[in-house]
Each structure stands twice: as C-alpha cells, then as structure tokens.
Design goal:
mainly alpha, 3-stranded mixed beta sheet, about 120 residues, single chain
C-alpha cells in the first residue's frame, strides 16, 4: 500500500491524474471503523432496502454462497475473482461515478475467442 501511495504522489506531481487516482485507490486500507460508518450510513439512509453483511475474513467464499442460495442479485468486488467461484453476475472495477464492468456467467460462452 505504501508503494502505491508513493507512486500516486509521483503521478500526481507529474500531472498524470488518472494513473495517480488508480494508485491512490490501491493504497486505501478499509478499516473496521470505515466499515462500521458505511453500514450505519446504509441503515440510516436505506432502511430495510439494503442489507449489509460483514465477512470475517476474505468475502469471496461468503459472497459466492449468498449467490448460490439466490440471496443476492449481483456481487460487487474489486476484481473478477468471483467468477472462479461461479457467481452468476459480477460487478467490478467500479469508479467514483458508479460505472464499472459487469460479467454474467451464463453469457461467457458468447464471448469471441473463448472455447
């Protein structure tokens, strides 16, 4: 994380804002306090519409379990690792505007070059 922070500062200093932002995002460490604040915000602003579940360690296996049981519509992650867990619909690489990449497992065979 320290390396990405340093790289981000260098990119920013050299005027490369996009690369700096990418590095700064990788340098962030999500603490339990941040998680707690996000959960409180979601409960306060969305009531019962959004349920927050906290994974004790890495969340991939827990998210895959929720997906297999049909308890979630989509899983959101930093990368595409959840495809290896056979999650039906994965949303990843979200930016600050809410845009990202979506992959639906059932549509993978339609991708050219995959066989």
């Amino acid at each position: 994380r320290k390396r990405y922070l340093q790289m981000g500062k260098e990119f920013l200093q050299n005027g490369n804002r996009q690369r700096a932002t990418e590095c700064f995002q990788r340098a962030v460490s999500i603490t339990s306090e941040i998680s707690h604040d996000v959960i409180q915000h979601m409960r306060k602003n969305f009531g019962g519409q959004v349920e927050c579940v906290v994974a004790p360690y890495e969340a991939d296996a827990q998210l895959a379990y929720l997906d297999r049981r049909g308890l979630v519509d989509v899983v959101i992650t930093e990368d595409s690792d959840l495809l290896a867990f056979n999650c039906r619909r994965v949303l990843f690489k979200l930016d600050k505007y809410g845009s990202g990449k979506e992959i639906e497992l059932q549509r993978l065979p339609q991708v050219r070059g995959l066989s």
